[in-house]
Design brief:
A mainly alpha (307), B alpha+beta (533), C mainly alpha (292), B: alpha+beta, Dipeptide-binding Protein, domain 1, Dipeptide-binding Protein, domain 3, 2 domains, nine-stranded mixed beta sheet, 20 strands, C: 292 residues, 11 helices
């Protein structure tokens, strides 16, 4: 297991290099540059700016410069947030995203697995339809509808919670963002759990367990859940990454200083260093999460050996 | 003594009690104090006045710095760091007498701070995007393009409190230009100590009414009163918080929930609701800006005046203003917005008063003359950058053009691509806008000069227009200058290299407890004049 | 274990069986009818209303609430265009994007995942490493740059979304395949000398179809939602065409002032997603060979 983990970490380096290369050149191929805007700059000033950011060099030279810089831990300045470096932005944004993301994913797992399991046990009952129907509204309503709707109801009409803002991380400010982030994931987790639980409950080893006269609750919790959770585990890696980095809508609507907005805004603003920094960070995050998921998978399913 | 209670769920009784007590106790004695929360229009790129380029940045930076002149409550120029000044006969030399004042760290402010600052913004290494605004100062362009040493700039400290600036020509707008952030002083002693990190909280030193306390990127910027500011006694608000959220719908909700006192800009699709529910808070005022469609005059068939004229005539501006936008924008038949300083009356297109159905007929006839008809319709792409309003206007205009047999394909791209393509002249008809940097018609009309380059998107080039503008630039007599510019605009409105659509309004939501927020055409509202009730 | 021929015969009756069971599932049948109605409405959209999808009604409000006299059954949008017609035109785009992209992801993902999982060892390792690499490439970034680079093109959305979604599909199928391939009947087939490809397509894929269908029913709505997310960012389909995503993201901004702009497209979207969901559930239950 340790050797496997080490090997996976080792193989992350070429993966990262590949991603850096693709992202770097894709970004540069995209039309429009970081300093194109409504007010066109006089050519001399544009030249000054490009020189100041080393953007006047050939692209391949910029690429190698970049590689050398990141090896020294220098991810460069942002072109949009001129007073901050990329490292500043990521180190201030990520803890916020992580806090929200982890809370949302935990909420999604607890509620989703619970609802999915119950629905699977009472397959095709009214209860099943009710649980799955409710879970589905989480998927059926896009988060850019859900977020303003919650803000309108709980922030404006009822005044229970602040409409937006981060408030230094006070819990009241996190409630709506976490719920909005978790809702679609709850639905996905519930559906995946239900699907695989139905399958597992009909499989031979559960029949055997039942035939042995085991208590139904023990069958479900000890045996079925372990197998039934496999697809959910598979799903969690990408889901976590998606929640942490893909929360751009929630961040924009609830005005949260997370990392998601840098990513999309960076791409739209051609803020090359920010995009590259976030891409690298994101890739590292996913590589780690995938490794963790694989290890958990191997742990839960003895039939899969991590070799 | 308004305490900020953001969230009722977590209200704190004793706090509320003491707030109530304070309110009762002090309400008669003074209105002074309080925290003001403002939703600006976006995250500033920087707090360094030499590195910013937008009005949303000016809103924040302008609270921290004061130039030679400053804005009054109506955003008109008044003495700032300069107490008084004299202007030479030819209008080209300004001599400013500075007041005795200090930087926020107590360092005395001298005329040399201005010399340093103006040189700094023009140095090529500073890479200031907006440096060209100061080209009216003698030697500025040469310094900025690296052709001359910064010492050649005609900004001189005659003594510690006297500053002389020479201009390339008489510029009646110069005193107003000095209120712009490009002309703000920056503290040399701090820049030399901290370098790039000088705008961080704790490092930053300013000369304006407020100093920086905290800055969380993409969330908020907190400022507090600068006790060293010379007029600190008259500044009422103690603390300012700027929320930089861009989502206007969300900002509107925060405003309604009482989390924000002033929300600059709201989306125009909300206007019906706002008029009904928040009539007293909704502020709309004319704004120095024009929304227009430049036409690429170098590309066929747009080289043909008849085609351009037909397109311009077929747009029903009143319908766009009244039905699509509904926020009191002014239908534009001229390029320069009405009411600009030093400009008597703009030149409008000569077909303004022809009734719309008749205009459609004439437009059709023009297109026919130009060789377009039902079997050979005029087809082109109308480009706009991604935004709800731009989209709605483009859709409406395209449907109006359909009436004269024009097929306009809509093409929207994100802002970077849009302007990169406009710069390269890679468009046929596109959306653009201009908001004035200073209150003068020249700031609009220069966009159509041949020498302007990239900002003249449609590459309009007319010798008569250029000649008139050049003549106006060297004219000190305001009346004559105004007339020359009017003639230039008339030339442009006959040639129609651009289709004016509407003149902007500023839109804000202002809480009723805010006093001293006066609507003005620059949409500049300095917080030193604001009080809370 | 039964010989190979017998397995095929049994497989056929399995599908017939499945169809019968599917039609006994009320929720699935209702969903199929509803979804069919939406598809038919979308196809015949232009003939149902006197209004065109791209022409403003200058005589009515911008936006205007539903008005039956003027035949604006769903009201008009911010440009005075009929919302009923636009919702149905949006249905075309959204459904097309959802189904095509999912199909692309299904095709690539299932083949890839089953192959990797079945072959195992080094091949599996390399194949999954490729998936990992692609996975680590932030997908939104990828899509945004594609949209920017090639301009707005609806087919590009299919390809981009499909090309991204297959990764998860491949992982799920691989995981399932690994569990299945150790079962007796696969080992038996292997023992009697059936070729690898045959085993993958005839035994592995049919047996992982349950989770694949579940995932597919998640993917179609996910793709439709992703398209709407792109619309929210302003990267959606070009005017005057529209999609549910575009309509909903516009409507969400005015949910209080002009609720009809949100409600109608959102209801259509929600119904569609629910339908896919119930059909998927029905199919899953019907296809499950062990559930008898």
């Amino acid at each position: 297991m340790l050797a496997y983990t080490l090997r996976r970490i080792g193989s992350a380096i070429p993966t990262l290099l590949f991603i850096i290369t693709i992202a770097f050149f894709m970004m540069r191929l995209a039309p429009g540059g970081p300093f194109d805007r409504e007010r066109q700059l006089p050519p001399e000033i544009e030249a000054n700016i490009l020189r100041a950011y080393n953007l006047d060099k050939p692209v391949y030279e910029q690429y190698f410069d970049y590689l050398i810089n990141i090896m020294h831990g220098d991810f460069g300045p942002s072109y949009k947030y001129l007073d901050f470096t990329v490292t500043d932005l990521i180190t201030t944004g990520f803890p916020v995203s992580l806090r929200l993301g982890m809370s949302a994913i935990l909420l999604a797992i607890f509620v989703g697995v619970f609802a999915g399991t119950i629905a699977a046990l009472k397959q095709n009952s009214v209860f099943d339809y009710m649980v799955m129907g409710t879970a589905m509204t989480g998927i059926a309503i896009p988060n850019f509808v859900m977020a303003p709707l919650l803000a309108l109801i709980f922030g404006v009409y009822l005044s229970w919670l602040p409409v937006a803002g981060w408030g230094g991380g006070a819990i009241a400010y996190q409630v709506m963002p976490i719920i909005t982030l978790a809702l679609p994931q709850i639905a996905y987790v519930a559906r995946l759990t239900r699907g695989s639980m139905v399958e597992t409950m009909n499989s031979n080893f559960i029949r055997t367990a039942r035939a042995k006269g085991l208590n139904e609750r023990i069958v479900v919790i000890r045996h079925a859940l372990k197998g039934g959770l496999l697809p959910v585990i598979s799903y969690l890696g990408p889901a976590t990454a998606e929640i942490i980095t893909g929360s751009v809508v929630i961040e924009a609507i609830f005005d949260i200083p997370g990392i998601g907005r840098y990513f999309v805004n960076g791409a739209l603003n051609r803020d090359y260093p920010v995009v590259m920094g976030v891409v690298i960070f994101f890739a590292l995050l996913i590589i780690t999460l995938n490794l963790v998921v694989d290890l958990i998978y191997g742990f839960l399913d003895p039939r899969v050996k991590v070799e | 003594m308004q305490k900020t209670l953001r969230c009722k769920l977590f209200q704190f009784r004793p706090l509320l009690f003491s707030a109530l007590f304070f309110t009762l106790f002090f309400s008669q004695s003074a209105l002074a104090g309080g925290d003001l929360r403002i939703a600006s229009m976006g995250e500033p790129a920087s707090l360094d006045p030499h590195k910013v380029s937008g009005t949303w940045e000016s809103a924040v930076v302008g609270e921290m710095f004061v130039g030679l002149t400053a804005e009054n409550i109506k955003a008109e120029p008044i003495p700032g760091v300069a107490e008084s000044w004299t202007i030479s006969e030819d209008g080209k030399t300004y001599t400013f007498k500075l007041r005795k004042s200090n930087w926020s760290d107590g360092t005395p402010f001298t005329a040399n701070d201005f010399v340093y600052s103006m040189r700094r913004i023009l140095l090529p290494e500073t890479a200031a995007e907006y440096a060209s605004l100061l080209y009216i100062i003698k030697g500025a362009e040469a310094v900025n393009t690296g052709k001359a040493k910064p010492e050649t700039l005609a900004v001189k400290a005659l003594d510690d409190l006297t500053l002389e600036i020479q201009l390339t020509g008489p510029a009646p707008y110069f005193l107003e230009l000095l209120t712009h952030y490009t002309a703000y002083p920056v503290p040399r002693h701090v820049l030399e100590k901290y370098g790039k990190l000088w705008t961080k909280p704790g490092n930053m030193v300013v000369n304006g009414p407020y100093t920086l306390v905290d800055w969380v990127p993409n969330t908020n910027i907190k400022l507090t009163k600068n006790q060293e500011f010379w007029d600190a006694a008259d500044v009422s608000i103690d603390n300012l918080t700027f929320y930089t959220q861009e989502d206007r719908t969300a900002v509107q909700k925060r405003f309604r929930a009482g989390e924000i006192d002033i929300a600059l800009d709201f989306s125009s699709d909300q206007i019906n609701w706002l008029r009904k529910n928040l009539p007293k808070e909704t502020r709309i005022a004319p704004y120095m800006g024009v929304y227009y469609y430049p036409i690429n005059t170098t590309k066929k068939p747009f080289t043909d005046l008849r085609v351009r004229k037909a397109l311009a005539m077929a747009i029903n501006r009143e319908a766009i203003v009244d039905k699509v936008l509904k926020t009191g924008e002014i239908a534009a038949y001229s390029f320069v917005p009405p009411g600009m300083a030093n400009y008597d009356k703009g030149a409008e297109v000569d077909w303004k008063d022809i009734p719309y159905p008749e205009r459609i007929k004439q437009a059709k006839a023009l297109l026919k003359e130009a060789g377009f008809g039902p079997d050979h319709p005029l087809e082109f792409t109308l480009r706009y950058n991604t935004s709800e309003n731009h989209k709605r206007i483009a859709v409406a205009v395209a449907s109006m053009w359909k009436q004269i047999g024009v097929k306009a394909e809509l093409f929207n791209s994100e802002v970077k691509v849009h302007y990169a393509d406009l710069k390269q002249g890679d468009f046929q008809v596109a959306r653009a806008a201009w908001v004035a940097d200073y209150n003068d018609a020249q700031n609009f009309l220069y966009l159509l000069e041949t020498r302007t380059g990239a900002n003249n998107y449609g590459r309009y080039s007319n010798a008569n227009f250029d000649k008139l503008m050049l003549e106006a630039e060297g004219t000190a007599d305001l009346k004559k200058r105004s007339e020359l510019m009017r003639q230039a605009e008339a030339q442009a409105m006959a040639d129609l290299p651009i289709i004016p659509i509407y003149h902007y309004v500023s839109k804000s939501l202002v809480s009723q407890k805010v006093k001293g927020f006066i609507d003005n055409p620059k949409n500049v509202h300095r917080c030193r004049y604001i009080t809370l009730q | 274990m039964v010989p190979e021929d017998a397995q095929i015969i049994k497989g056929r009756s399995l599908w017939q069986d499945a169809r019968r069971r599917l039609f006994h599932n009320k929720a699935a049948v209702v969903s199929m009818i509803l979804l069919g109605t939406i598809v038919i409405l979308a196809i015949f959209a232009p003939y149902l209303s006197p209004w065109a999808y791209d022409d403003p009604d200058w005589g009515y409000d911008f936006p205007g609430p539903p008005n039956f006299e003027l035949h604006h059954w769903f009201g008009t949008d911010g440009n005075g265009r009929d919302l009923f017609v636009r919702t149905l035109f949006g249905a075309r785009v959204s459904l097309l994007v959802g189904i095509l992209a999912t199909f692309v992801s299904l095709l690539i993902g299932v083949t890839y995942g089953a192959t990797a999982g079945y072959l195992g060892g080094r091949t599996d390792n390399i194949m999954m490493r490729i998936v990992d690499v692609l996975y680590s490439l932030p997908f939104m970034f990828f899509v945004i740059l594609l949209m920017v680079f090639f301009g707005r093109n609806i087919f590009l959305i299919f390809i981009a979304l499909g090309a991204v979604q297959w990764l998860t599909m491949a992982r799920i199928v691989r995981g399932q395949t690994i569990s299945i391939k150790k079962k007796e009947f696969i080992e038996a087939a292997h023992a009697v000398g059936v070729s690898n490809w045959k085993i993958i397509f005839r035994h592995i894929i049919p047996n992982v179809l349950g989770p694949v269908i579940v995932y597919m029913t998640l993917t179609i709505p996910q793709v439709i939602l992703t398209e709407s997310f792109l619309s929210f960012l302003g990267l959606g389909i070009q005017e005057p065409l529209t999609s549910w995503g575009v309509l909903i993201s516009e409507g969400a901004k005015q949910m209080e002032s002009s609720p009809w702009l949100l409600i109608f497209p959102a209801v259509f979207l929600a119904i569609t997603l629910f339908c896919f969901n119930f059909i998927g559930d029905g199919l899953r239950d019907a296809l499950d060979p062990k559930d008898r």
